[in-house]
Please model this.
Amino acid sequence: MHFTGQETINVPMQAVWDFFMDPHRVAECAPGFQSMEVLAPDHFKPKVGVGIGAIKATFTLDVMLENLRAPDHAEVKGHGVAAGSAVDFNGRMDLTSESEHVTRMDWVADVNVSGGIASVGGRLLESTARKLTAKFFANMRENLQKHSSPAKE
Amino acid sequence: MTQHVQVTLNGKPFQADVEDRLLLVHFIREVANLTGTHIGCDTTSCGACTVLVNGVPAKSCTLLAAQVDGAEIQTVEGLEQDGKLHPIQEGFYEEHGLQCGFCTPGMMLVGKALLEQNPNPTEAEVRHAISGNLCRCTGYVNIVKAIQYAGKKMSAPAPEPVEVK
Amino acid sequence: MATDLHAFGKSVKRREDPRFIRGKGTYIDDIKLPGMIYMDIVRSPYAHAKILKIDASKALALPGVLAVITGKDLDAYKLAWMPTLMSDTQMVLPIDRVVYQSQEVAAVIATERYIAADAVALVEVEYEPLPPVVDPYKALEPDAPLVRPDHADKKTNHIWHWESGDKARTDQLFNEAEVVVKEHMYLPRIHVSSIETCGCVASFDKVNGKLTVWMTTQAPHAIRTVFSLVTAASAVGQIPEHKIRIISPDIGGGFGGKVPVYPGYVIATAASVLTGLPVKWIEDRSENLQADSFARDYHMDVELAGKRDGTITAMRVKTLADHGSADAAANPSKFPAGLFNVCTGSYQIQAAHIEVDGVYTNKPPGGVAYRCSFRVTEAVHAIERIVDRMAQELKMDPAELRLKNFIPPDKFPYKSATGWEYDSGNYPAALKLAMEKIGYADLRKEQAEKRARGELMGIGISTFTEIVGAGPSHTFDILGIKMFDSAEIRVHPTGSAIVRIGVQTQGQGHETTFAQIVAEELGLPVDNITVEHGDTDTAPYGLGTYASRSTPTAGAATAMAARKIREKAKLIAAHLLEASPDDIEWVDYKFQVKGAPGRSKTMADVAFAAYTNHPQGMEAGLEAVDYYDPPNLTFPFGAYICVVDIDRGTGAVKIRRFVAVDDCGNIINPMIVDGQIHGGLTMGMAPALLEGIFYDENGNIQQGTFMDYLLPTSMETPAWETDKTCTPSPHHPLGAKGVGESATVGAPPAIANAVVDALSHLGVTHLDIPITPWKVYEILQAHGLTEV
Model:
């Protein structure tokens, strides 16, 4: 599955960058997040529970950040397994300052799902992924609002 | 975690301590040792596991044994009474309503439950009643006839038992 | 009294039923042995991947888990790979790479079923995904990843090329043709899905060295021989055949899906040999759908050449056969494409040229597991669809086109353009009966009226010739074992008998029909005859039941064995009647002295005498064995007509009526034959309208459970109407032909033809099955014909 998106966030670009560089803050915003092992500043193993249709699975992900160019470009690569299912993904994010307190984030992700989740949940996969992504960004906005200095509405 | 499950199974009391996650179909097949109830799928789609719970057809693969504590369960083994076949069993024999026999117990119990509500069902009503039970062998034609045969038998004044050799 | 003994041709009620209607069948999962342990399988989520690591530590730490077996463990015994029935190889468990989604990767052995399942979730496998090969055409491109790098001599995914017919003559006829029609036809992968899944209980007795395996198998003897040969090639040490016993207990449907040797059987057997404990393995439905043998997956380019007057002259077919990750189709060894070249069908076609290419993809292996008679479903679909296409092109009625081109009844035995000798047939009679029964002429009138009002109704015909009863030893073998079959009959002193056969019922009623054959031949009451099969310790060697072969082969063997008994019985009767054997005739189920009907002896009299008063110099007893090598295949046939109405609001196709006229020669039990036809028609409708297995670009199966793989229920299945004609087989001892798969072969094109017929005025010339409502709806939408 190939996803692209553009988010407009009402905080300065540095705040967005700081958010993405803090795995704990990112993890908190991920729907289904359960726990995480941090191996290095750019290497973490979160455990995430996902439900698609009739199947629920707990994925142990192995995520690496790559090609970091503060404060506006980052890439992520990862792979995860659950009982009977597997996921491989890579993604890219570019930040642009639209103004002092408004940042535009352009992102691209490729996600390949294999196994039970894909076979049984196949028809629901894309819509569920979009829902989870939307939830993540909503959570992210809330998190940024809490942590950053208040932005003009 | 164990549960104590007490049921009336084919008219007789039966009880056992079981894991809380034990499926009713395994309770019947492995704990009560009645293997006439079969497993054909893992998505509640095929109906091979159908039993009657308090007279109502239920897919025993999608119930926990613990959920039927206190209930009356009838399986295929409970159809024959005192050496006499139930009319539904006669119907399947007379009308060639089975080939490999794997879906048959579930089909017969659904048929029996239907006939107890509706002793003279039309073909459409029978087909609707068994629509949750899959059969790969018969193409359903003779299953419909078997159930209608049993209906007539059950409504008849003094049913003569058929000799099934 | 004599009428009581007439058993052949009667709808005798089934001897199997008493136990099934009481829930007292013995299917694999019903078998419980003391000390039995359970096996469950860890499966790959990826269609193609390297295995980097298997960590079973968490699984092994679970109380009740006895072992976790991997490919490396089996490899130490040289059991990681096994031969397939087509002399390819297949992994039992992989050592370092998986080649289909849901492939077996490791096996867990535990004391209880639920513990084994828990442990499967605890085995951690690290994979490196590889690009999967999913599209068979892409699989043949030069840069395609290799599915089978273990075939070091092969640098492509191409498995084999097979040709049949006369290319030069076919090309010439096509060049001369006044009309040529061509269609690309795809028959998608489907899965047989018997309601009982596959499994086994393997029990190795360490004390006496005997291996007993109860198995869902349609061919227990072949399995026994293969197991012995596999152990011989392994480091386990050969288990000789007399120390192997394969038992097919009651089997909940086979249809070809229980012929292949699945890795689960081999692993469970290995586990039992190593532990000395009985090991049970039974699949879930998802495992069954996702990993077991499939059928179809044929991409066919079909062409027909002819004259403007409707004479068909030649046929050309080029097929790409997607075989998944191993060639494990259960075909006779000389026929990698099965009997596909019977595709000239019921017509006098002068020449044909057929090419089939097999290709590897990252999908489960298989090919003929869905009631298909070795690819005859594919062959009949090709010819019956293209004949309708030709009728459409010539603006000729499809019944008329068929009648014009049928092989006439007086031309049998008929040698087809691809070399098959059809034994007997009367196609016009069957089609005319079907047309009369369905009211064909009136239906065409109705269709014209409805079309004028914008209502969509279609009529589809399929006149198929089947080819069954494999087969004569000069041509047919499976892994070198010739495809004879066998029967052994022993008559007891008090006039009853036991017959043991080499074939194996999975619902076809052999315990009844074979008793009927013996009853008829020997003049004994049907109730006095026991039929046994499925236990390799006692049944004579046979090749099993599939491809509708039981009646043609073992049925013949049974008749022949019975006739051998009758020959000996005649001598005993002569002795009892104090007459010369030349003066004894078999009349009305009795041995009678010619010209003196009052002087007779029944078979029961003779049986008693065989043990108490046999002639001096003759062996006592009354028994015989026959291994029957059929002189030819048999050719059942039929004419099916289907009427459909299309819902313009949903695109749904409703079968209004379906008339099936079948001819399977002489019929042993009409009730059982009709049951086979009802079931076969339903398994023909299924791929036509409901079933199809498709993979996404990552090799994920999209129909991995019954939620998405839709078997027909009682709601979709129409009330099938059946009738018969009878054209006996001239070479079969009973004149019988076999019928188990005819309906699954003949029905899909009848339905597809009906839907195309309903839409042909819109320019539709072909639709691939399954014809789902969405497929039809898109066409209606494109023509502005949808109705809300």
About this structure: Residues 125-147 of chain A form the longest helix (23 residues). Chain A has one domain: 2-146.
